[in-house]
Amino acid sequence: MVGESTIKWNPFAPDYFTDPYPIYALSRQHNPIQKDSFGNILLFRYRDVAPILDSRDFEVSSLSTFFESKESYIFKNSSACPFLAKTTSKWLMYLNGDIHRKLRIALGKVLFSYDFDRLIQEAVQDCISHFEDDKELDIVDFSKYFIYHILKQFIGLKDFASLEKVVEFSNLAARSQDIFVSKQMYLKMNECFIEGIGLFADSNFKANLIKELDGFEFDEDDYYSILAVTLMAFFETSKDNLSYSLYTILSKPSLVTYILEADTKQIKWITEELIRYISPLQFTVRISKKEVTLQGLMYPKDTRFVLGIASANRDEEIFDSPDEIIPNRQANPHLAFGAGVHLCLGALIARKEMEFGLKPMVAFLQNFNINTIQPLRWGNQIFMRTLESAMLKRN
Ligand code: HEM
């Protein structure tokens, strides 16, 4: 029965951010369907998570509506102009039905009009040259630099939009989707969203978007919302995925050798395996459109399900030795890019970043050792797992 086990997922437990996987594993084994104090149903097993992602009987909840309902609380006694609901109003992953379908087609067309192979390959070389003479290096800074240099080639950023500004914007935008966020943090996001309007230049990206969305009555705020979500979805997940991938590879000499000797097919396998293992987006949410039965239990319409993507990706029912990186794992039906109508629109781009980047980056980074004196630093985020710092020292 839901709620009877003493095993409970608790993101406030010490060391949760360092490693949430032990509590995912215990939850899968002893309490796979949990109810939290807000009435949300948390799911940890692949067999529960995967079908919901794929099902038309569930939809996404609107982030913008959530903010509208919270505005009187967040902005009480504050002179700030509320901008949270506005900035998140056209975020694809929080839209349903026709508007979602049309916006997804338009954004997809614009994104895939760019020659990402060339942009990524150039950014790899640029990134390695930039860090060539460094004696010490933070893998997270290295990854940020790489992704930023791809991003700014297509989305259109003003000179003002430095790497630091993009990092801050992307991280706060990602945090806006998290749970248990403080009022102070929401006010900080709001300020960042207002200032963020100035990040985007008039660009081909925006012009193409306007052309593709001809017939929609979108105003400047709507276009800003689309640019904001593209920046966040592109930057945050790719950076998190690459930084922890590189750290994980450098921690294990056999993986370094595998990458350096791998052919194209083997690089594709390990790319997929690293994305499964890392699962930058650890959770997502779906709402039931009608009454549903799950493992014999009945849930009414409008139940909010929190889906443990990262936990499902380590489920021993599906993956052999799920906590190990098996570079040439053949069957790898992971859910790190989601599934169904909201399947990640940038999955192909994220895969290419790894496929073009891994070998030259590992060849360069093997000249460094992991600095064991400075421990890894993790962000205190629940939905997205973010490595904040991983230092290397030149050999
Ligand atoms: C390793 C990197 C990435 C991971 C792990 C990742 C993961 C995900 C996941 C799990 C979803 C589905 C969320 C849900 O169903 O609730 C998603 C959606 C999305 N992703 Fe990614 N993503 C990555 C990179 C990218 C990139 C490079 C872009 C480029 C713009 C991107 C754009 C999007 C967009 C626009 C959506 C919303 C799709 C929709 O709702 O129809 N992502 N991503």
UniProtKB/TrEMBL annotation:
Keyword vocabulary terms for this entry: Heme, Iron, Metal-binding, Monooxygenase, Oxidoreductase
PROSITE patterns membership: CYTOCHROME_P450 (PS00086)
InterPro entries: Cyt_P450 (IPR001128), Cyt_P450_B (IPR002397), Cyt_P450_CS (IPR017972), Cyt_P450_sf (IPR036396)
Pfam families the UniProt entry points to: p450
Family recorded in the similarity comment: Belongs to the cytochrome P450 family.
Protein known as: Cytochrome P450
Species per Swiss-Prot/TrEMBL record: Aquirufa ecclesiirivi
Source lineage: Bacteria, Pseudomonadati, Bacteroidota, Cytophagia, Cytophagales
